[in-house]
Design a protein that fits this description.
This protein is mostly helical. Helices cover 47% and strands 4% of the residues. It contains 25 helices and eleven strands.
Length: 745
């Protein structure tokens, strides 16, 4: 800490070293948080893992990112990340950890990239603090420990940032093209989410480059054109391919990548209009709640962002989700109420906002005295870049109608960068007694400690009073002592400053470890004592949270002192009815079981799993199979292409992972995609492509006519022939949990 006011000298010294010894433990911390125990997640996000299993089987499936080996429907995202996961699985073998590994390495890589980006301009200590803040931002390891896309997306955008900074330093146009092309690659990871950084790229290049306006406009126009070309390259190829020669584009209503990119995975995220009926009519994501027995058509066009949650609740499925502290959250999946202080609300703040007050004070210090017309120093220019990344993304999450908690990883780089650069800048102002600016350091420490107490207070029952009181007391004491000792220059003051930073990072560090301590959720990644639930709520009074997921939430079919038949399904991540369960509706965070399902019903893949198993097989979709059902289908297959057909990916994914055989998710991810018609299904049956149908009552959406026809023209298979005795009876007015056979001449 005592060297931070001589950052230039530090940087020159560190540049002569091959390895920054202070960086080594930071990287080891990041490696531990991102890699430790990923081998226990056997199936990860089953929706995406099933796609990797399918992509390993043929180049056709690989190119289109087919969900199933039969090439019937794709997943709902572009393929780049899944290409990387498939290559990893090809090299290391098909395991849960091998599809998670690329994202875990990307999380570590992001820490290193942020160190490099911040260190060069703000000094080596700033780089170290920024890297450590990035590593300890709770949502970063929580996402990186899964096979969801966001960790790789952030890493790619940081690579683009490095290229942009290099373009400005070297004044070489080639690096500008490379930076924007890399954003185009990121678009092919998660579509429009990659474009959230564009304001920062444009603003920084305009302000930082010393070339004429004519050249700036020409260069940026050319780079943008290249970015757009790279962005839509895969989409154009897919959309221009005849529909009968490729899989259906999952979660789109028109079988189009571009519609998916700019509609559901784009603008609709902001507006919240992510619900689509089978006819394509959009409705608000948070519709009026339906009853569990409703036979109304679902309004669902689903996205699989982190896909479906396998965890089940012991309490009633109609019970409202509670925010930490007990307050009801109107936002789906505990994303709070839209407004200027949304990032400070319960459910989001503990994922990303631990250092936000300190960042705000840092921004004030870094931009103090800056004149609008310039000239700007390099530090001010790069601070402007991080601010232009932070503000638009923060505004989006403050007003967006539909997103998941783990999307907040997009805020981690600018927050970490400002935490590192600000720590050095505020310390320098404090040591130099720089007027009112010298009060920014103790003020930032005090307000940040206060926010952290607020964030932790709902979790007092699980983490205890001591850490909450400790952070609050130490934060106040250190801030006051620093304020009192402002005129003194000695080593004790340096140690106090260092101690303050340790205090502010202590609880984020603990929160970042919670997916390891309590278990993570591969579908809805989040951090906190409730991390295994993926729902971002506070712990309940349930016991043995380590073993039973989150306070009684169990993977379907699991046993931990309670019959799995008494558990109820959670809504899947990304369901288009505002985050609802396929076949149900939810409002204000309420849960509903599938339409027509009984509270005791289970999926066909709900064979009992041992709670003592060393592997987590939840996969968000209960990545277990009903072995008796599988044996029956395998024995009675007479050459059909598909092992069986079912309404949605929830039932299909575990069987694809287990067998590598084609299983048809007739309606795509949540069962609402308008893929299949009665006439098309008849033709498939006559051709001998499919004859068994498992209907669970889930995800009717736009395929109710198909389901009705199946029921009217099929033979019901007695459950005694295929249902495991360990599973509870299938029942319900919509025919939940029924196996049918159809043969047509």
């Amino acid at each position: 800490m005592k060297y931070m006011n001589s950052e230039v000298k530090e940087e020159r010294t560190s540049n002569k070293k091959r390895i920054d010894l202070f960086l080594v433990p930071i990287v080891l911390i990041a490696a531990f948080l991102n890699l430790f125990k990923i081998w226990t997640d056997e199936y990860a996000n089953a929706y995406y893992t099933a796609a990797v299993k399918s992509m390993l089987q043929s180049f056709h499936n690989f190119f289109y990112a087919s969900f199933d080996p039969g090439g019937y429907v794709t997943i709902d995202k572009p393929p780049v990340v899944f290409w990387i996961q498939t290559i990893s699985a090809k090299i290391f073998g098909f395991y849960g950890w091998s599809v998670i590994l690329p994202q875990a390495l990307a999380g570590i890589g992001s820490v290193l990239l942020l160190y490099v980006l911040v260190k060069r301009t703000f000094g080596v200590w700033a780089g170290r603090f920024a890297a450590l803040a990035m590593a300890l931002t709770p949502i970063v390891p929580a996402v990186s420990r899964t096979n969801n896309i966001d960790s790789m997306l952030v890493f790619t955008l940081l690579v683009a940032t490095w290229m942009l900074f290099r373009a400005v330093r070297t004044a070489k146009f080639g690096w500008v093209l490379a930076a924007f092309a890399m954003i185009g690659v990121a678009f092919n990871m998660k579509m429009l989410q990659a474009y959230m950084v564009l304001p920062a790229f444009y603003v920084f290049y305009v302000v930082a480059t010393k070339i004429t306006w004519k050249k700036k406009i020409a260069f940026l126009t050319t780079a943008t054109a290249l970015m757009l070309a790279v962005s839509v390259s895969w989409a154009v190829v897919v959309d221009s391919t005849s529909a009968d020669k490729r899989p259906y584009m999952g979660s789109s209503q028109t079988n189009s990548v571009l519609e998916l990119a700019f509609g559901y995975n784009g603008i609709n995220r902001l507006t919240g209009n992510t619900s689509v009926t089978g006819s394509g009519h959009k409705q608000p994501a948070q519709t009026e709640q339906q009853t569990a027995s409703s036979e109304t058509k679902q309004t669902s066009n689903s996205s699989a962002d982190s896909s479906q949650s396998s965890n089940q609740r012991k309490s009633s499925s109609s019970q409202k989700m509670q925010a930490p502290g007990g307050g009801n959250q109107n936002g789906m999946f505990n994303t709070g109420n839209p407004g200027p202080f949304r990032l400070f609300q319960k459910g989001l703040s503990d994922q990303i906002s631990w250092l936000l007050p300190f960042v705000i004070f840092s921004i004030v210090g870094l931009f103090a005295g800056v004149k609008f017309k310039g000239p700007y120093t390099t530090k001010q220019k790069e601070s402007l870049f991080w601010l232009a990344w932070l503000l638009p993304v923060a505004v989006f999450f403050s007003i967006a109608g539909f997103f998941h908690q783990y999307y907040l990883i997009m805020l981690a780089p600018p927050i970490a960068a400002f935490a590192g650069a600000g720590a050095v800048a505020l310390w320098s102002m404090y040591k130099q007694h720089n007027g009112w600016k010298s009060w920014l350091l103790p003020g930032g420490i005090l307000t940040t400690a206060a926010l952290q107490v607020y964030i932790m207070s709902p979790y007092v029952s699980s983490i205890g009073v001591a850490p909450i009181a400790g952070v609050g007391a130490l934060g106040v004491i250190l801030a006051l002592v620093l304020a009192v000792r402002k005129q003194r220059k000695n080593s004790l003051t340096n140690y106090l400053g260092a101690a303050a930073m340790v205090v502010l990072l202590a609880m984020p560090a603990y929160w970042a470890m919670t997916p390891i301590i309590y278990g993570g959720n591969s579908m809805l990644p989040s951090a906190g004592p409730d991390s295994s639930s993926g729902m971002g709520g506070p712990p309940s009074t349930a016991t043995n949270s380590k073993q039973s997921g989150f306070n009684g939430m169990q993977p379907p079919g699991s046993s931990s002192g309670n019959s799995s038949s008494n558990n109820q399904m959670q809504p899947p991540s990304g369901s288009s009815n505002g985050g609802q369960m396929p076949g149900g509706s939810s409002n204000n965070g309420q849960m509903q079981p599938p339409s027509g399902s009984s509270n005791n019903s289970q999926m066909p893949n709900s064979s009992s799993s041992k709670s003592s198993s060393s592997k987590r097989k939840s996969g968000g979709m209960n990545a277990e199979v009903n072995q008796k059902l599988l044996n029956y289908l395998t024995k009675n297959n007479t050459g059909e292409k598909y092992l069986f057909a079912t309404t949605d990916s929830t039932s299909a994914a575990p069987y694809i992972i287990k067998t590598g055989k084609p299983v048809m998710a007739m309606g795509g991810f949540s069962g609402s995609d308008p893929i299949l018609t009665v006439s098309k299904l008849k033709a498939m049956i006559k051709k001998g492509e499919v004859k068994y149908f498992y209907l669970s009552g889930m995800g009717k959406g736009g395929q109710s006519d198909v389901i009705t026809w199946i029921k009217d023209n099929s033979k019901e298979i007695p459950s005694s022939k295929w249902q495991s005795t360990s599973s509870s009876a299938q029942q319900g007015p919509s025919g939940n949990g029924t196996l049918y056979e159809i043969t047509l001449k």
